[in-house]
Amino acid sequence: MRRNIALIPAAGVGERFGAGKPKQYVEIAGKTVLQHTLAIFLNCAVIDKVAVVLSPDDAVFQTGMHDKLHVLKVGGQTRAESVRNGLAALLQAGLAAETDNILVHDAARCCLPQEALMRLIETAGGCEAGGILAVPVADTLKRAEGKAIGATVPRSGLWQAQTPQLFRAGLLYKALAVPDLGAVTDEASAVEMLGVHPLLVLGDTRNLKLTLPQDEYIVRLLLQQAD
Ligand code: CTP
Ligand code: MG
Fold first, then answer.
1. What is the per-residue pLDDT for 227?
2. Among 94, 115, 108, which residue's Cα sits nearest to residue 22?
3. Is 110 in the pocket of ligand 1 (CB under 6 A)?
4. Least enclosed by CB within 10 Å: which of 25, 95, 168, 193?
């Protein structure tokens, strides 16, 4: 039986958010950002395990006892490194098999609606190529030429990638086994480099990533509504 295993990279420093501590530990609507994110996956009946990747020197995380939760203190210098180290740790410990589905999800996307998560698993969970949540680009796109508009870029067919990104553990491990992770902006981009074409599954604009200080306002409203 193929399992669905969430892998949550949470080893970043949150430089752009600038809270004086990593943004995953900022408290919004009564819980930390990371607690909100973990709860989405821990409360999802079709998620079998949740693995969180922390920085090796993380002294903040408090494990609440949960039989689905695994803490991996193997974070790296970049997000891609944290994901690769976390996946390697899962496979080495026998916590994941190559045929299991791994759902990589940013700790900072703490407003992921359950129905979007279910849609990804139902649509891409049985697909060899995997799939990601994404939303069609809504705004008109401009290519800059210096400080002015050089051209308007047709937006038809363009999607914005979100997470979770779901792949078979074996495929993802192979995709991330490259000497230079610099070009890997998300898991799908690594998988695409193998010539594989993951599915685009409709995400949700509420699944935003807490990145800048001004994102906190909307994230708070969304989290308050979800309670
Ligand atoms: N992440 C990680 N390991 C890193 C860098 C990032 O696990 N070395 C995680 C972050 O904790 C976050 C997710 O990847 O949950 C998305 O990254 P991002 O939003 O860029 O977070 P930060 O890197 O922490 O923020 P910034 O780039 O502003 O410093
Ligand atoms: Mg970052």
1. 61
2. 108
3. no
4. 193
Pick the closest to residue 37 from 210, 216, 221, 211 (CA basis): 210
Ligand nearest to the CA of 210: 1
Tell me what percent of the residues of the chain surpass a pLDDT of 90: 95
- Expressed in angstroms and rounded, the spacing between residue 12 Cα and the centre of ligand 2 is 6
- CATH architecture, range 4-130+163-194+205-225: Alpha-Beta Complex (3.90)
Nearest atom (ligand 1) to Cα of 109: 15
pLDDT digits (tens, 9 = 90+) for 100-110: 999 999 999 99
Q: What's the confidence (pLDDT) of residue 64?
A: 72
- Among 53, 79, 109, which is best to mutate for testing ligand 1, by the most ligand atoms less than 8 A from CB? 79
Residue 22 has pLDDT above 70, yes or no: yes
Give the start-to-end residue ranges of the domains of the chain: 4-130+163-194+205-225
